[in-house]
Design a protein that fits this description.
about 100 residues, about 55% helix, three-stranded antiparallel β-sheet, mainly alpha
């Protein structure tokens, strides 16, 4: 999981948005439309990131297809410390996430 997170978060252009999606879903599971609205991102951008995160076993979709709700996988839940390490190394902040403040 460490290598996957470095590739998805620390080593790619979309890493900051994927980090924001993971942190938001960790706080409250949401569907793609809710994530786009909450994070002020384009719906298609969110869908792209969600597809990558599901494909790499970071998130899982629960539902019937349209309107799926996204949750962290058990594997990801056990590696949240790695996510924080990668985010710190990439100099990401949690600014702008619902329920979080950057002090």
């Amino acid at each position: 999981m460490r290598k996957v997170l470095w590739w998805l978060i620390g080593g790619s252009r979309g890493g900051r948005n994927r980090f924001r999606i993971i942190k938001t879903v960790d706080q409250k599971p949401m569907n793609a439309n809710q994530l786009a609205s909450t994070l002020d991102l384009d719906y298609k951008t969110v869908r792209h990131h969600l597809d990558l995160l599901v494909e790499n076993d970071v998130l899982e979709a629960v539902g019937d297809g349209y309107g799926d709700t996204y949750f962290l996988t058990e594997r990801m839940e056990s590696h949240l410390d790695v996510l924080e390490t990668v985010a710190e190394s990439a100099d990401f902040t949690i600014e702008g996430l619902p329920g979080e403040t950057d002090e």
